[in-house]
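[RESIDUES AND BACKBONE]
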Amino acid sequence: MTIRDALAKLTTADPSLETRLAVGVARLGSRDEKVKASRMKTLVEEDFGNGPHSIVVVGKLHFMEAEALELLCGAGPKDLRELT
């Protein structure tokens, strides 16, 4: 299942999840890996290419975790503010 398909199913089942921060990961460890952190409603539109795919739904963060998501995964400061 792709990240897009999984997020579509999750947000259809519970629309309140659209605003939750998540991290989409494709082909972790390979040369063409893709890692992106954003709101679920935004990640649904992202093209992650071929699998394997994973999703991490983000909860309460330590400030260093928030910094890592911003620097390494492209999460916006506005998205992270409420989770630290």
Observations:
- Helices lie at 3-13, 40-43, 63-73, 77-81.
